[in-house]
Amino acid sequence: MMELLTAVVYFTAIGAGTKSVVSSRSETPLEWIGTSVLYGVGTVGLLGQIAGALAIPLALPFFVALFAAGVVAVLVRKPWPSRVAAKVPVIAYAAMFVTLIPIGVLLLNCVTTPVTDYDGRVTWVLKARAIAREQSITGPFFQGLSSRDAHSHYPLLMPVADAALLEIAHEDDDRAVKPAYALIALGFLLALCAAISAIAPVEVAWLITACVAWLPQFAAAGDGGMLSAYSDVPLIAFTTLALLSILRGTPVALGVELSFVACVKNEGVVVVLALLLFAVLYGGKRSLRRLAVVSCMLAVTVGVLAFWRARVPLEHDENYGSLILGVGKLFSNWPAAARELLSGMADVHAWGLLWPMTVVAFYVAATDRRSRRRVALAAAVSMGLILAAYISAYAVTNWSVSELAVSSANRLLLHCVPFAAVLLALGGSRFIVVDDEEGTTVVRRPLGQLNSTRDAVPDRAP
Amino acid sequence: MTRTWPALRDAARLGLALRGRGWETRRGFIFGPYYTRAAALRRVIPRGEIVAIVPRHRSDRDLAMFCIYAMYPTPARIDDEESARRIPRPRWVIVVDQSSSDVLTLSSR
Predict the structure, then answer these.
(1) Is B23 in Cβ contact with A112 (below 8 Å)?
(2) pLDDT digits 0-9 by tens, B79-98
(3) Rounded to a whole number, what is the distance in Å from the CA of A276 to chain B's nearest CA?
(4) What is the DSSP string of A193-206?
């Protein structure tokens, strides 16, 4: 329990402090908690990755300094959540209650159960323990001299954040890092609800959040789900955070959040491109100038990542950079690779009816008014880009595609869930019938009056 | 729902069953004899000495990977040709064989 409290205080203070510097948007209390936790983990991991690449020791003083800076920012800027009480419908409370069940299990699991999943033990937490021990991301472990550094070029946002908890706890036991993954999953659900609330009524937001919280691949999958120490849930959490900034229009925050996405997994680069495409399609030409600022911040992060990668040998991993140049193999294997990845969408044991409903929601939103059509198109094209990139990776890999799909297809499809949730929100809110603000007439609320305290889909990103 | 509910129920039951036990006991409870054996071997091998982990069969390879995690901070590597080229052959060797009762067998050269 002490480990959980430590993680909550540490990441929330740093996250609230960072957020107060990069964004001034008002937030509800639940949104504030979710985004603060995600910002905390992201900030520690990102700054640790940058500092480590520049050979700054990742020792306790570094992590304490981050905490102190976060506390100072919070005390100076007072970034507290909005106290305006929004009207919450009964159906939203019911959905919240349903969401609390997996969250309760998640919190119980993180204080009682050690890391048991495959990649948590073979890859991610082993890297975290090595960072905490060697206080470096270029030391003997990362040179392949002391142990097996699986996927040696994977970005280290999560291992560095985990290492912070290990150093604060002054121990090597993975019980200290479990709360980080639980908080990320919790933060993801709260950020998802906030992102959907920006384009749909609050009851739709909570209903979709509850559905995602109960998705088998998210809640029940031992490898890659919320109870595991994989980096797939962190990836969709930071993706959702970036979607929230695009929908609410905070460009500096978006630059930081895209850096989190790029540094959490190799696939993050693909998701970053999809998010930039979403931002352009959603915001139109006027967004391009703001995205230039975002791209500059992103270029620094990717540059530091490349600098670090040049200092550690590539081991136990595919070199997709060179494999993708095999154009012949790419084209000949593409149909089989597409079949393997996309057939995972029909797996109802992993996804329920999420993907068929997403297709229907896209159709519904695409036939709606122009502003909704634009968001739906942006989400669908971004999802298409991610899927095309993953299919291409399958096509060029040296692995047997069918074997690779068994272990990774559902985890890769999980990366599309934030975009699918946007489509579901657009489709679902078209037909919802709710009380209007006066409370007497039952009407379908028009797009511009979704929530009295929130913005609906604006014609252009602010 | 049909898959999520049983999984959440099982995770909750496991969490409740593990409460009050030490963390090494919890790992022994979850992972079985291999973990208990690995923890014992970790105490036997002198600090800083590199261990080669050799899977007896192809099906033992995953367990060999988990052994690296269980042995950490003892430096350990899977003993294959690729790693043998980079790191000197170590004195300590652990053979992983799930078909034997010990699962892990330690030998020193």
Answers:
(1) no
(2) 765 666 666 678 888 888 88
(3) 33
(4) HHHHHTTS-HHHHH
- Could you give the 3-state DSSP secondary structure of residue B78? strand
Alpha-carbon distance of A194 to A258, in angstroms, equals 18
Closest by CA to A185, choosing from A296, A107, A245, A128, is A107
Shortest Cα distance, chain B CAs vs residue A220, angstroms: 5
- Cα gap A223→A120, rounded to integer Å: 9
For residues A453 and A86, give the distance between their C-alpha atoms in angstroms, rounded to a whole number: 7
The amino acid occupying position B28 is G
Res. A438 pLDDT band, cuts 50 70 90 = very low
Contact check, Cβ <8 Å, B4/A214: yes
What is this model's ipTM? 0.88
Given a contact cutoff of 8 angstroms between Cβ atoms, the answer to whether A109 and A219 are in contact is no
Report the predicted TM-score, pTM, of the whole model to 2 decimal places.
0.90
Give the orientation angle of helix A232-248 with respect to helix A401-414, to 10 degrees. 40
Whole-angstrom Cα Rg for chain B: 17
Check CB contact under 8 Å for B1 and A122: no
A341: nearest Cα among A236, A411, A424, A264: A411
Nearest CB among B8, B65, B87 relative to A220 is that of B8
Separation between Cα atoms, residue A394 and residue A407, nearest integer Å: 12
Q: In chain A, which residue's Cα lies nearest the Cα of B64?
A: A122
3-state DSSP call for residue A434?
Answer: strand
- Quick check: A102 and B19 CB within 8 A? no
**Nearest to A295, CA basis, from A305, A285, A287:** A287
Closest Cβ–Cβ partner in A144, A216, A227 for B86: A144
* Of A129, A216, A227, Cβ closest to residue B72: A129
Nearest Cα residue in chain B from A150? B65
